[in-house]
Structures are given as C-alpha cells and as structure tokens.
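Dear all,

This email documents one entry for the complex benchmark we are building for the journal club exercise. For each entry we list the sequence lines for every component of the assembly. Then comes the predicted three-dimensional structure of the complex as a token string, followed by one or two observations. Please use this as the template for your own entries, and keep the labels exactly as they appear.
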Amino acid sequence: MSLLTTFKKEHLTQVEIEMRNFLRQQTTDETLLKSMLYSIDAGGKRLRPLLLLATITGFEKEIKRGMYQVAAAVEMIHTYSLIHDDLPAMDDDQLRRGLPTNHVKFGAGMATLAGDGLLTEAFHLLSQSELDSDLCLLLVQNLAKASGSFGMVAGQAADVQAEGKQLQLQEMTYIHQRKTGALFTFAITAGGLLAQQEESVVDLLQILAGHLGLAFQIRDDLLDVTATTEQLGKNVGHDAALNKSTYPALLGVDKSYQLFAAELAATKNCIEKLGEVSFAKPDLLLTLIEELTLEAREK
Amino acid sequence: MSLLTTFKKEHLTQVEIEMRNFLRQQTTDETLLKSMLYSIDAGGKRLRPLLLLATITGFEKEIKRGMYQVAAAVEMIHTYSLIHDDLPAMDDDQLRRGLPTNHVKFGAGMATLAGDGLLTEAFHLLSQSELDSDLCLLLVQNLAKASGSFGMVAGQAADVQAEGKQLQLQEMTYIHQRKTGALFTFAITAGGLLAQQEESVVDLLQILAGHLGLAFQIRDDLLDVTATTEQLGKNVGHDAALNKSTYPALLGVDKSYQLFAAELAATKNCIEKLGEVSFAKPDLLLTLIEELTLEAREK
C-alpha cells in the first residue's frame, strides 16, 4: 500500500468515527440524523481533513484525538455547504458523489435543516474538542471567519450573483478564494497551529493554502469540461449549463492548464521553504497534492 | 418612561450596534450584507437579548460589552432561524414583522445564504467576545447545543415532519421545547453564567426558562387564532392553513389559556425561589414577562 493509502486507512477512519458518533449523540430527531449522515456517509475525498492531518504529520507531530475532532468539524462545514449549494434555490443539482443529492432524497426543507444542523454541530464539536481552551477558541474563531460572510458564504453569495455573467479573472479569483480557498486555508493553518508552529510558519502555510486552493479550483473547472459524469460522480457540463464563469470559459483550456501548473509550482515552492524551517516530513502532503491534481495534469 | 422602556432604550441599542457593526466589518459581499441586515433591522421584540440582560440585571451585575456581544449572538441565531423557517422549502411565509420575508425580497438562494451567514457569524462574534476564554468557550458550547440538532434545528425538523398530523401533547411539547425553549434557556442561563452564579442557581434558571418558553409558545399559538394580521405583523391563521398542530387545536382555546396561566405561574414561582438566593432585583424580568404575555392574557 502507498504511504497515502495507509495514512487514509488509519486516520480518516478516526475522523469519520468522530463525525458519526458526535452526530448520533447530539441528534434527537431520527430523520434529521439520517439526512445529515446520508451526506456525511456519501464520502468524497475528505480533502480538508487530509490536508489538516498531513500538515501535522509534516511537522513530525503525533496525531491526537483533538486533532481528529478539528478535522471532523471542517469536514462537517464542507458537507453542509454542499447540501445547501445543491438546493433547488441554489444550483439545483440532482447528483452528488454518484448519489441523489440530499434534497432529492429528503426534500428541500429537511436538506436545509440538515445543512443548518451540520454547520451548528461543527462548532459544537470543535468547541468541546480535546484541546487547550485558548487554542480551541482560536480555532473556533478561525473556522467561523473562514466559513462565514467573510469567507465561504461570501464566495457562495458572489457566485449566486455571478450566474449568467462572464466575470473577469479578478472577480473569479475572489469567488474561488472564498468558496474553496477559505476552508483549505483553515485546514492547513489549523494543522500548523495544532503542531504548535510559530506565527511566521503559519503565515507561510496560509500562502501555500492560497495557491493550492486556486490550483484545485482550476482543476475542478477543467474536469467539468473534460471528464465524464461517471468519472466525477456528478453531472458534467453543469457549469456551462448554469452559465457559470469558469477558468476554461474565460482563459481557454490551454491557458487554464498553464495557470493551474503555475499555482501548483507555487504550492510546492512553499513546501520547500517550509522544509527549511520545521516541515521535515513533506512526503505525505506532496503525495496528497499529486493525487489531488493528477486528473487535471493527465489531460 | 417605564423601567422596561428605559432599559430597552439604553441596552438594546448596544446589542443592535454589536450586531450591525460586526456584520459590516465581517462581510465582503454587499448583497449578502444587505440581506442579513434586512432581517436584523426588521426588528422584532429582541426577546432573547432582553431575557439575557434582564437576568444579569436581576443579579445586580453591571452590563459590560462582552454581555452585549453574547446577546447579539443569540439574536443573530434567532434571526437566521426565522429566515430559513420562512423559506419556500419550509413554511413558505411571505410576511414577517409587517415586511416581506427575506426570500421575497432577495430570492431564496440569497436568503439561504443570509441565514447561513448569520448562523456562522453568531459563533464568530461570540468566540471573539470580550470575555474570559473559559466562559467564552462554555457559552459557544451551550449556544451550539441549544441551536443545533439537539435543540432548535431538531425542533424545526420535527415540526416539518408533523405538518398535516395532529400531534399528542407530549410530541408538541417536545417540538416547542426545542424550537423556542432551547434558545430561551440559553439566553436566561447565559445571563446567570455571565453574572457568575453558581451551578444550583443556573439549574433553577434553566427550569424557569423551560416554563417561560412553553408559556410563550402557547401564547403564540393562541395569538395565531385570536389576533389580526395587523396586530401580529405576520399572516394569522397560518398554522391552521399549514395544518400545524397547535395548543388551541389540540386542547381548545380555554384549556390552552389555563395551561398558559399555569406555566406563567410556574415561571414566577422560580423567580421567587431565585429571590431567596441571589436574584435581588427581579422587577425588570417580571415586567418583561408581563409585557410578553399581556396580549394572551387580555383575550
């Protein structure tokens, strides 16, 4: 088994246990629980938990329960955002990760509440995680900033308003930095904070996350143009159908690949710089980034 | 001016400033900000902040900035819940506090996001409020528990599933304890915690809040039957139109009044007991409860 496969098997299982057990413990309504677990269990790459845990590992720190709980919280935030994003009032998506979307399965009312529940329980779990109070409170602040009206929700709002318009590169970057970038940045910087790194290191992690987030978003846009529905587990060509601004639509496919490659190179450059300080085991994070961006580079 | 009017003028203004300033500072998207402020500015009774602040005052403690911030956070949670509750996918309400509902004004997509933004920013504001870290973290935990899938969201979920069914008293009480009761309980117990009261006092506040929450909910159900749209600022007869279970529908109007009166008496009984310990200035809370329940008692 590869390094990454072994790591996923050992550590993602723990993150999933934290999510499921907490939701089961905290939820008094059975249908609400089913609806939340449906989207949690639908899987996905668990990218944000992986980035968080791979960052901690890079600093040669042992992974403890409190860290799994932070990873679980950020994945719950991500999952809620997908449920709300798929709603008829938003993107009106029918398929997600190869399965009917939450509202197709449970109705739009329950899906709205499942999203609200996951969002709230993410803060609940984080606030009672096994961490020192000051660090815990700092992570609550950071997660709220990343996912609220300065971060992810602001990105979604700009995205909703951008439908049908062709945006300029700057506006598109604004949206992606918030929609995808903010939670990536939370995950990677939280890894640094949990590994007790000093401010300058956390700042460098933030720059790394910015580049990686953009690379990932361009890759996502490219896949929507070039992959099949089967490969993606969601309907392709959807961005075009919604008249959404994408990198390929704005820059063309070739130029988008170039920009993607540049952001990827900048990401790796940050990892090298970190290696000069305290990031002594970058292999796992590098393998993860390779895996993440493989499909896009293969085109 | 009455005691309560003076108190509102002085202290609610501060809570509103905390909400508005924080949202303005934190929100990068202009339409999202407008949509969130639209519902915040639509007013309402600010019941949860008032209960919180009146409880602190009852313990003869001075109100400081951190307490306004906690009050602002709970009001933001309440406001998000109204926005989502009014959505077409939920109750599909057109009118709230005499104004078009958020989704009528901004569309269902933006209203969903305004709710998500308010919910997230509530935890953001609370987590960076001017309080000792341990108390702050405890309040984040309590607010999340009260508003998540153990509390308010669970109540909403049960409510959605109950449409069209006539519930038994026990099921209806379950729903109300969560939909309304949980945030009332948070507000009143947070008042006790902020006033540095010991556990036994906070436990008694929790019992008080349970009775008050039920009294308030029965009153709300009664008003939907007996008041006019003009008096309420929202459409009356709406519960019946949605085939929602209400106390008057289950018990009849007279028996509902009796139950309401019993819960109100139990609330006052708790205040008396608290007075024997450290709740030396109950007048403000009592006046607030009088005002709250006046319309129902007048029928």
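Observations: The longest strand of chain A covers residues 95-96. Chain A has a mean pLDDT of 91.
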